[in-house]
Design goal:
This protein is an alpha+beta fold. The protein is built from 14 helices and 13 strands. This is DONS protein.
Amino acid sequence: APRGLSAAARRRNPFSRLDNAPQRAATAPQPPAAAPAAGDPSAAPFWQFLEQACEEKPPRRAEPAEISDILSLSQDLHSPLAVPKAPSSPRQEFPADWSIKTRVLFVSSQPFTWAEHLKAQEEAQGFAQHCRATQTTLPQSVQEPRLCTELRCAFQQSLVYWLHPSLPWLPLFPRLGADRRMAGKPCPWAQDEALQQVLMSDWSVSFTSLYNLLRARLCPYFYVCAAQFSVLFRAAGLAGSAVPTAAIAPTTRGLRQAMRSEGIEFSLPLLEESRARKQKNSEENLETETTDGLGGGSSVEDVGEPAPSDDDDDGSFSWLEEMGVQEKVEKPDTISIQLRKEKHEVQVDHRAESLVLVRGSNTFTLLNFLISCRSLVAVAGPQAGLPPTLLAPVAFRGGTMQTLKARTVSGRARVQGGFEDAFSLEVLGPVLPHSLHALTLLLGPAQRGSFRALLSPHEPSAAFNAAPPQEDVQQDLPACGLHPKTLDQLSQSPTLGKSSIRLLEMKDFSYTWKA
């Protein structure tokens, strides 16, 4: 009789039928099952869905689950069914998260069968609802989700986003660090300057169209994803700002200097916040030392180096002339002096603290700057000559309708004291902020107010959660195509700083989250 699976084999394959192993050992051998096709994501263990988003897997449309008998997820594999220590208190709404998610895994004790096998009419109705900005209001609890046509159409509607350019054979998001994934892909424009100009001209038309929609408050926000940085444009009334804003991250000293040269006024909110926090800590530490009788104490380590003063210029070397050695000592050139003055600013290059925030009419100047910016398009490598990716929640000139890829998996998960049914819905990005919120609005009623979501953010975009200056917001965005509740959430001032939500849980229709 064939022997049961070894312990090592069971660890490699969480889908193995551990509970039936003794019975199989006593029966006649069965013909071997056909091996899964290479690259088939349905053959992957459930816990592999939690791998880093940078690992590419072939996308698939919504399809029925592969039923497995036992899903063995130990704690060292970060079981999604383990109870997290969520730092937030239960609330009716979770904070706006402006980072782009590459993958979202919803887990629930209730099945996701309502998300499988959408009928042609339901799919078409979902597209029509999106194009007509028709919103669906569901009851607090849906008794038969699989039979609820409104729920299934709204699910299709929540998966829609708009993209430019559209090149099906190329992964157009993320663009930062995507050279390896794009290597070897056919790029006929790489050596054709005329074709590059055509692509860039078409891209400029789409970019301008999106900005005009945003200024007219018909598009709530959109992303520009380039090979070196990303830009988030937000309409007036979102993120607690009464004027349009644009956030750029990550940036470099060269890019910031080029923006200054074009007359673009901007701020570095995360860097300014860090400096203010260090200054506050410094003052508190000095007060503590004075109170304890330790003297002035200038050895506070977390204060950082003082900012360069105006004395660091050519005039500060006059003392060399007084000593008569001005000809023997090589003085720093102007560039070195300028670098020393901007030392703190240079140190944050390519980091979250390098986030640049542009407000008001300066966003229009930024639009023209980006269209003519040479660093916007790579000149070498797999992305050479390829315009940035435009992502938006609404239609725009030259945009192509796309849908997120979704699939369900069901099985049994090992918990303390035995096993319980576990069901999951995996959504592959780019998952924009409005899509995440729209999905949670559907999952609440469909999953009886209980589910958990594991989110994989595109790390550079987490800096977009920095809060702009707060103002009295009285802007109205009724015709921007978003659900009223989603619009209310995105209108609130960001509270996550430079982090993003990684775990979101609903229990009894109340949210807790962990960044």
